[in-house]
Amino acid sequence: MARDDGTSLSSPELVVAEKVIAHDGARSLARAEHDGLLGVTCLQDAPYMAAYECFDSYSAFERYLDYGGPDLIPSVRLLLSEYCRHALDRAWFYYPDALPEEGVAMDDIRNGYILRRLNFPLEDLYPDSQPAGQVGQEIYGSGAALI
User: Fold this and answer.
1) Longest C-alpha distance within the chain, in Å?
2) How far is the C-alpha of 120 from the C-alpha of 98, rounded, in Å?
3) Which residues of the chain have pLDDT under 50?
4) CA distance 74 to 83
5) d(C-alpha 120, C-alpha 117), whole Å
6) What is the pLDDT of residues 65-97, one digit of tens each?
7) Cis omega before residue 96 (within 30°)?
């Protein structure tokens, strides 16, 4: 991902996603539209957010908030708390059965194939409304539901 001046951002990045997925399906488990969520990319140049990295960051930020307690700078506490709140809201959209059919990639999946009936999270959510799951489903991200 590049800044306006053309330089790269370091990894992992916090990016503001205008929309995780825009849909009007009846299976919405959270808000249908998200206006400016914080998301963590899995690599410095990856164009998508991933479940494992999202919840790895969530766990680290929760520990930081616990350890810091009242001594944390208020703006840092607010940023990390907001990240955690939005991560939980966005979490539903990593699961293919929570997305409308047209919101999940069907062709040219890089790793394996997608079985919507399995509750394994998709590897990739895109902030620009590309179909999720272009990389595939991730077994190692399945523990996110237990966090």
Assistant:
1) 50
2) 11
3) 1-36
4) 14
5) 9
6) 999 998 999 999 999 999 998 888 888 888 888
7) no
